[in-house]
Amino acid sequence: MRRAVFALLLASVPSLAAAGPIEDQQIWVNVTAMGSLKDRLIYFAELQPRTGDGAERVSQVLMRGALGWQFSKAVSLYGGYAHIESPVRNGPDTNEERLFTQLTWQMGTVAGGSVSTRTRLEHRRLSTGGDTGWRLRSMLRYVHPITAPDKPRALVWAEPFVAFNDTDWGARAGFDQLRSFAGLEVPLPGRSTVEVGYLNQAVNAAGPRNRMNHVASLTIFIRP
Length: 224
Known about the structure:
An 11-stranded mixed beta barrel has the order 1-2-3-4-5-6-7-8-9-10-11. By secondary structure, it is mainly β. It has one helix at residues 2-18, and strands spanning 22-38, 41-52, 57-70, 75-86, 94-110, 113-126, 132-145, 153-163, 174-187, 193-203, 211-222. A hairpin with a 7-residue loop joins β7 (132-145) and β8.
């Protein structure tokens, strides 16, 4: 009996290993310009190339822009559009057109650091299907000074994504992905900043195996 149980456990090891996530090493670079156009009318414009497959090829290029209204120093509401191109090896590229609404909220101070949220509702259409996908994503962000306020600051954030419906291009209703970041926020001259660190992206993929991307992340915020 013991031998039979032991043999069964050994036979299950390859299947358990196969059930693990597909992992990749990536590099994401994000350059975002943001500021005020007039009074409380605000904007941001973003360009973000990403490399995948061991950071050896461009896997995605994201272009996003939005106009917004600053209701107070703490709360802003945006409406915007994003175009995402995903090169596919040995096949046509995949394009996504995305409309979104975004609410940002500077919540206040906790334990000497600042807490903020960014929530987006996305309306998504892909070139590989005819359905419209709806997705909600909300980032909770915490920044804490390490020494002086004008020196690099510790930064952590987490952003879960939830899809509201199934689509013919692969989206499934429910948990979509979780992005988690740990790194530094480095002040630049004026109000601009650089964020550098490690980003973990855990994706609930449509296939039999999920994906986990290990990302070296660099984000530059240009604030005139």
